[in-house]
């Protein structure tokens, strides 16, 4: 059984159809990429998956749970990356992790997580004083603090330099290798090509293709996912 199952999801904001009959499945242990043009409905879809928005129609099951009706149960088993602005600048890294750990019944060990994300030496630093890459690692740590089975990472490497991006990619691979299923929302085709086992390509509220990056390259006869994406989203 797929770990995430989205069937015919539709979501409107007033008269604007943001998500228009989207279906896809994610298997346990995958890094699954949600790719798409601006305004394609990626964030709305991922918010519905987490029970943060209610769909107008369609069904969603995450770990067999309905994200809206069983939101409390799902929250214990799904980790979500916070946008950096949501942490106060005067909160220290270890304090933030300990605070978030207290929200979960069986959280990860804070010191182990600090070590895993190369944050031990910054544990007593204020969040506001960290570099972009360090902040991003803290936000990933917070997504993992509850020992989730699924982690949702949105715009993972936006604003990071090439070294920090590569470090972050390695880290996400280690998260997947530790058994966590990862849902990755990204604009970056190189990131998707490097990290994702499979991707869904969104365009104007619909999924126009799903498959492994190499399958999408093959079906479009393109040599890069970037070119395949442009073809699949009809802007070639
Ligand atoms: N709260 C809202 N109220 C009204 N319209 C919204 C709201 N949130 C999103 N939209 C609209 O719904 C559509 C889908 O937005 P969404 O944020 O889901 O797309 P996205 O693929 O995540 O975009 P981006 O890549 O630019 O972040 C867009 O046209 C957007 O303007």
From TrEMBL:
A GO term, aspect molecular function: ATP binding
User: What parts of the sequence cross the membrane?
Assistant: none
The record's principal subcellular location, in a coarse class, is: membrane
Task: Please list the coiled coil stretches.
Answer: none
Establish whether keyword Nucleotide-binding is in the entry: yes
- Sorted alphabetically, which InterPro entries does this protein's record hold? AAA+_ATPase, ABC_transporter-like_ATP-bd, ABC_transporter-like_CS, ABC_transporter_ATP-binding, P-loop_NTPase
Task: Name its cellular compartments.
Answer: Cell membrane
Q: Which UniProt keywords apply?
A: Antibiotic resistance, ATP-binding, Nucleotide-binding, Transport
Give the matching CDD domains: ABC_subfamily_A
Output the superkingdom of the source species.
Answer: Bacteria
Q: Which residues form the ABC transporter domain?
A: 4-229
**Signal listed as a keyword:** no
Annotated protein name in UniProt: ABC transporter ATP-binding protein
Q: Which organism is it from?
A: Amycolatopsis samaneae
């Amino acid at each position: 059984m797929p770990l995430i199952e989205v069937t015919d999801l539709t979501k409107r904001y007033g008269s604007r159809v943001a998500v228009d009959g989207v279906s896809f499945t994610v298997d346990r242990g995958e890094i699954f990429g949600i790719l798409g043009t601006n305004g394609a409905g990626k964030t709305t879809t991922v918010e519905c998956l987490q029970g943060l928005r209610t769909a107008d129609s369609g069904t969603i099951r995450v770990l067999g749970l309905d994200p809206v009706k069983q939101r409390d149960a799902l929250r214990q088993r799904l980790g979500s990356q916070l946008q950096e602005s949501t942490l106060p600048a005067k909160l220290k890294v270890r304090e933030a992790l300990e605070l978030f750990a207290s929200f979960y019944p069986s959280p990860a060990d804070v010191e182990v997580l600090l070590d895993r994300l190369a944050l031990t030496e910054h544990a007593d630093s204020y969040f506001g004083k960290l570099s972009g890459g360090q902040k991003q690692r803290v936000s990933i740590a917070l997504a993992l603090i509850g020992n989730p089975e699924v982690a949702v990472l949105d715009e993972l490497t936006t604003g990071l330099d090439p070294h920090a991006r590569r470090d972050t990619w390695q880290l996400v691979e280690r998260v997947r290798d530790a058994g966590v299923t990862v849902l990755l929302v990204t604009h970056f085709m190189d990131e998707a090509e490097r990290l994702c086992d499979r991707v869904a390509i969104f365009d104007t509220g619909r999924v126009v293709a799903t498959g492994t990056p190499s399958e999408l390259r093959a079906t479009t006869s393109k040599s890069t996912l970037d070119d395949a994406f442009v073809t699949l989203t009809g802007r070639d």
